[in-house]
Input
Amino acid sequence: MGFEQPELNNWLKKFPLLTQITNLEPVVWLNPNLKKMNHISILPVNKQDMEEAAELWDRFAPFLAQEFPETNDSKGIIESPLRKIPNMKNALNKKYMDKIKGELLLKCDNELPIAGSIKARGGVYEVLQFAEKLAIEAGLVTKEDDYSIFSSEQFKKLFHQYNVGVGSTGNLGLSIGIIGAKLGFRVSVYMSADAKQWKKDLLIRKGATVHEFIGDFSEAILAGRQQTTKERHGYFVDDENSRHLFLGYSVAAIRLQKQLEHEKIQVDAKHPLFVYLPCGVGGSPGGITFGLKQVFGDHVHCFFVEPTHSPAMLIGLLTGEKEKISVKDFDIDNRTEGDGLAVGRPSSFASSICEKLISGVYTIDDDDFFKMLVKLVDSEEIYLEPSAAAGLIGPVKIIHSDYAKENSLNMKKATHIVWATGGSLVPEKEMKEFYEQGKSLIETE
Ligand SMILES: *Cc1c(COP(=O)(O)O)cnc(C)c1O
Output
């Protein structure tokens, strides 16, 4: 399956860290191609694109508030709280010798309305922009109108002619399925067979059609893309190459800036901001990193985290081959319990941007997902799904690396934000199992 020995040897010789990566050892990789913002001339998206995406969200707020009562308080704005987690910081410092000096916060996308995960940003956005485009083309609406009109029968009738397809291990399918069905689209979700049963059940309850595929995520995406684009009225949400998903995620940065201002947290040369983001194909962490870089420039430092068994972005960026190389080429099995992270190759759209903007990638064993999940429950009573807990160990990993020294950063005044990417839709029974699994791992340490 993987590379022939001579080619493999060449890669290992060229990039010595690949030896540890192929041995499934946790690593910290600092990106040698990270660019200062004023040295980046063109990217496939710009700040204006992000601002336009924010405006689209605003136009749809009246519709969302009407259709999803849980967004009433926020007037239809899909946003999550930013919470200080001092007890978690103490717990980490107790275990890792007082390394974290600055403030530790959790960006609680696990609490995002509609989808209970970070996919409520990208997935919902992509379907909304498609719906808007169709409605404008049909002469049903203008951008100046009140978008609560999207709830009317006329719109549902229009959208019902269209089939929105998506390949997903779970959360993206959920977000597309829920918003798609609400607007009146027919939705087909192509899943790998190992996707969680409760996610499949929930999707079917919401009115989506679920197609299962043996094999991994890429194959589910491939099948979905082929099926959907064959249809005259098919629209495929392509997680491996989507500008819309990316822009939907990026708007989080504008919102986070306001939240930090509200908390009176400074971000500047003397007060660096560190952000830790779990990475699958790279769309969500990439979109958010892109947005944060527009807002905070070089003062924000974004690190991705991947499972040791699915280091897709890491291998793509380290080798420079991006979406052209897969973890399977190195005989890495791509098996992880981190839902959303079992990805063999990164998104081409996201990786081409991440290449210049991210500070690095670290990998962790699956066991650490569960241990971090337990630590957060015990210290803060916050429940995340395993993949969403991956960022919690980030500050320790980066403080142990040479990053701060190489970049002359004052870590005493740093703020650390861990992006919690999902969890609130996980059924109680499953959550209890995650917790118990983590507990038993901690006990046998
Ligand atoms: C999808 C997902 C991610 C990663 O997002 P990508 O866009 O695939 O990189 C991380 N955490 C959770 C819980 C997810 O569902």
Q: What stands out?
A: The domain at 118-243 is CATH 3.40.50.1100 (Rossmann fold). Residues 242 and 349 are 6 Å apart (CA to CA). The chain has two domains: 5-44+71-114+249-443, 118-243.
